[in-house]
């Protein structure tokens, strides 16, 4: 009996069952075999990953790779507390759900050991610091920080030239509510005085 062909799986990559068609006519059977051999680990029904190995054992895939595999494309943006906290505007939130903006799905999904909150909304193809700042302003409740504290932090950041005021104003006009736009305008005016 000939030896079974072993697929060349990339460590850290997420695979859908249909991706396994490359290595066999019956991807479901191949997935079961690779799961049994420890070559694949489950994330959700029909979604698997090939773990990276470290001296501490198997390493799960990056969030961006999980979302790419789940959605089947790269048209999404990861956002939320890790991105907002790095802006230095006073947010120090930590919540157990990764926020994902995309063009296809809305809902909360458990993929592996992590939760992802997908929202079908508009977002830039190349988000910058200014976009993340207005995103934080829009979601201040989720970040657990008051708009007043964020406004004060934004004024300070603008004075320190950590944000471009015109880019910030444009991102607010394109992606936020009038209330957030007014906050951005006040902060820009206060930083300039």
The outline comes out as elongated
Low-pLDDT segments: none
Structural class: alpha+beta
Task: Please count the beta strands (DSSP E, at least 2 residues each).
Answer: 9
Give the topology string: H per helix, E per strand.
EHEEEEHEHEEEHHHHH
Lateral strand order in the biggest sheet: 6-7-9-8
Strand content: 15-25%
Helix residue percentage: 40-55%
Distance between the termini: 81 Å
Instruction: Please tally the helical runs, counting DSSP H or I stretches of 4 or more residues.
Output: 8
What is Rg? Answer: 21 Å
Oligomeric state: single chain
Q: Whole-number average pLDDT?
A: 93
Number of domains: 2
Biggest sheet character: 4 strands, mixed
State the main characteristics.
single chain, 193 residues
């Amino acid at each position: 009996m000939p030896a079974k062909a072993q697929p060349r799986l990339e460590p850290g990559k997420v695979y859908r069952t249909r991706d396994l068609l490359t290595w066999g006519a019956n991807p479901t059977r191949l997935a079961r075999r690779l799961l049994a051999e420890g070559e694949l680990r489950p994330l959700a029904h029909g979604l698997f990953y090939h773990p990276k190995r470290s001296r501490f054992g198997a390493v799960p895939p990056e969030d961006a790779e999980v979302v790419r595999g789940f959605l089947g494309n790269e048209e999404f943006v990861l956002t939320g507390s890790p991105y907002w906290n790095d802006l230095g505007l006073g947010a120090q939130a930590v919540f157990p759900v990764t926020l994902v903006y995309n063009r296809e799905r809305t809902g909360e999904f458990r993929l592996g050991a992590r939760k992802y909150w997908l929202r079908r909304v508009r977002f830039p193809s190349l988000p910058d610091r200014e976009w993340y700042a207005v995103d934080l302003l829009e979601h201040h409740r989720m970040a657990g920080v008051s708009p007043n504290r964020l406004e004060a932090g934004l004024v300070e950041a603008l004075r320190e030239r950590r944000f471009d005021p015109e880019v910030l104003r444009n991102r607010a006009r394109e992606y936020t509510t009038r209330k957030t736009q007014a906050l951005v305008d006040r902060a820009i005016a206060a930083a300039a005085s």
